[in-house]
Amino acid sequence: MNELIAVDRASSLVWEHAGDFGTVRVPLNKAVGRTLRQVVRAERDQPPCDRAAVNGYAVCSASIPSNGVLHVTGLQRAGRAPLEFPQNDGCLEILTGAIIPSGADVVIPGERVQRQGDFITVEPEALPEVGAFIDRQGTVRQENSPLLEPGIVLKGPVLAVLAANGLRDVLVAADPSIGVFAVGDSLIAVDDDGEEGLAPWEIRRSSEYAITGALNDFGFKRGQRRHVANVSHEIHNALAEELATHDVLILGEGGPFGAKSAVADALRDLGVNILFDGVAQEPGAAFWFGVGPEGQRVFGLPADSVGITVCMRRYVLPLLKRGQQRLIGKPPRVALAEAVHALKGLTRFAAVGVEHDQTGRALAYPRNIVVSGEFGSLLEVDGFVEVAPALTEADKEREVVPFYGV
Amino acid sequence: MNELIAVDRASSLVWEHAGDFGTVRVPLNKAVGRTLRQVVRAERDQPPCDRAAVNGYAVCSASIPSNGVLHVTGLQRAGRAPLEFPQNDGCLEILTGAIIPSGADVVIPGERVQRQGDFITVEPEALPEVGAFIDRQGTVRQENSPLLEPGIVLKGPVLAVLAANGLRDVLVAADPSIGVFAVGDSLIAVDDDGEEGLAPWEIRRSSEYAITGALNDFGFKRGQRRHVANVSHEIHNALAEELATHDVLILGEGGPFGAKSAVADALRDLGVNILFDGVAQEPGAAFWFGVGPEGQRVFGLPADSVGITVCMRRYVLPLLKRGQQRLIGKPPRVALAEAVHALKGLTRFAAVGVEHDQTGRALAYPRNIVVSGEFGSLLEVDGFVEVAPALTEADKEREVVPFYGV
């Protein structure tokens, strides 16, 4: 095996080669979950006009007669054109969000006045100062000011911002096309029971479900599985097709690149430049990454299921997000609730369940994974903590480490 | 307005009426993100046979000659039928996961022996005890033992468990059909600019995007928007159709039930029993809930966008998950980083951004929402904390409160 490179270095190399999957314009009702790739600006001032901040009465304060009695001549509703403001001794009932009709200079909250039929009585101490209870045009935002920056994911509240600003379609990141590729005929398909059921030495093909499942969990829908026999020219032809079709290619069969002669030969022939072959980590050391002649990103995942999950979460998904120019924060940090045995020279990804204690502290409880090759081991796991090689066991309980959720 | 009921009581009433949306059988490759509704049992023992735990040599320890030299007669690969074990002075090379051929009783790790051509030399001290480096059949799990319980969400690693156990299809929770309903003609559609653009008093219809967006964020895809004019018989007919079509109906126009005469009359006529009309909370007090004659759940959301987001997250989504019989944990608890002004008699849902400090503590920083009716206010918000009415401001910074992410 080649020399293993450090996790941070591998992560940087992957990140640097994320590229850009491009953009696509979609109608607003198809935009949920996509990554925004444009600046969204305010369609108009916010509020777009002077508006009532409460339910009450729009009044011209200088026109209130000495007895305080005003005739209510109409109801100004939100979303409706302004009514004509009445002459002397008149006022309008007004609802929250309605435009202030020209001529009114204050809104008196409804509970401050006495109403009888179409008349209200305003006591002098109930009259607010001029301009009160009016949300002034443009005080929250001005027309054309930026509302949303590229890189955010379009979720519930954000979609409403787009709608409120009249965007019927929106520029978003294109979804990368992702190939999930495996070689060999020693594994049994999920729907194959043979003639007499599964022989005890036979193993079902399951890794590809973990890979496409992880892609789906993070919103990447365009993963296509393909499986070819272990025959050199078939591998070569299939990989050539995959590279021509996909932005990202994930080989899900395990093992270092150097040991996979037919695959390695084909990828080299096809101009894929391997940037690293093996990472100083446990699990998932047999993880490699390369870049094709047109910038295609090619990942080789380890064979064991826990290693697959770690590599998908730590390397593949960040590249996919980065290629969409998504804004990505640092991973949250959690406190180790129990000692985790650090490894000399290897970063350890330890499976943990996370619980928040009574002080709001996120505590990571290590989960023992009996058999790394068994996905069932991951069922009680919320994610992985990254334990650096340098840590010594004595310090573990007080360590605070990055956390990657699954 | 009716008497407001407490948040916990409202939450319990909603929860109690979640019902069950039923089940559906889907092929494995369509199961991602769905809620499991069956017990999944081990297809066979795990491991399904005695298997090599390392790469090395399968040996019969009693047959090693005094010079320690063994003839390597073949390679036992994983997934392949067992080779015939060689007679005297023979052994088999074996790879991790391969079946132990009958006749071998120990695996010697590859690095412990010297190999020259087809021969290895085993020094006495390098020979492990009988049975070493063999994963015994059934030691992890026995055939037919339960692997997965109903109620979990099928994500990446779990899908691989299903595949590994030969489930080509799986029983999952049905997706509820959800109607999103609004009445009135005072709001302007996102794609309507009129002849001369939007008038300053006009308001775009945006709440429905926040509602369907929130549904999508949490994996509920079958939300259908409908909008009818404010005409009594049209409202009645439309609501009758909606109740006949959907499991859940969300009215997204705001205001207390008691104040919505045409909608309230229609729902009463159609046999919807209103369980509460108004919750002692801020924002979102004007939130109501009822149950139709066939158990349809009917929500009335408040008008303001922040209130909508809170009510979707705190009441509607838990009901949708519960109706799928999903396992749901308690909300995580976070520490308030700054004082939050509690409200007398009202539960306060305060918008916060959450950051993990250097000790792994999740700290909630209150975000000022300038205008509750504006979704843009939610962009820097990770979710809401629930501040009980009883809290006094002096205690806030040390309070640890439930958190609901958006």
Automatic annotation (TrEMBL), chains A, B:
Organism lineage: Bacteria, Pseudomonadati, Pseudomonadota, Alphaproteobacteria, Acetobacterales
Known EC number: 2.10.1.1
Purpose of the protein: Catalyzes the insertion of molybdate into adenylated molybdopterin with the concomitant release of AMP.
Key word DNA damage present: no
Signal sequence, start to end: none
Keywords: Magnesium, Metal-binding, Molybdenum, Molybdenum cofactor biosynthesis, Transferase
Reaction it catalyzes: adenylyl-molybdopterin + molybdate = Mo-molybdopterin + AMP + H(+)
Pfam families with a match to the protein in the record: MoCF_biosynth (PF00994), MoeA_N (PF03453)
Name this polypeptide is given: Molybdopterin molybdenumtransferase
Residue ranges of every copy of the MoaB/Mog domain listed in the record: 179-322
Pathway note: Cofactor biosynthesis; molybdopterin biosynthesis
Family: Belongs to the MoeA family.
Source organism superkingdom: Bacteria
Coiled coil: none
Gene Ontology biological-process entries: Mo-molybdopterin cofactor biosynthetic process
Reported cofactor(s): Mg(2+)
InterPro entries on file: MoaB/Mog-like_dom_sf (IPR036425), MoaB/Mog_dom (IPR001453), MoeA-like (IPR038987), MoeA_C_domain_IV_sf (IPR036688), MoeA_linker/N (IPR005110), MoeA_linker/N_sf (IPR036135)
GO CC aspect terms: cytosol
Gene Ontology molecular functions: metal ion binding; molybdopterin molybdotransferase activity
Enzyme class per UniProt: transferase
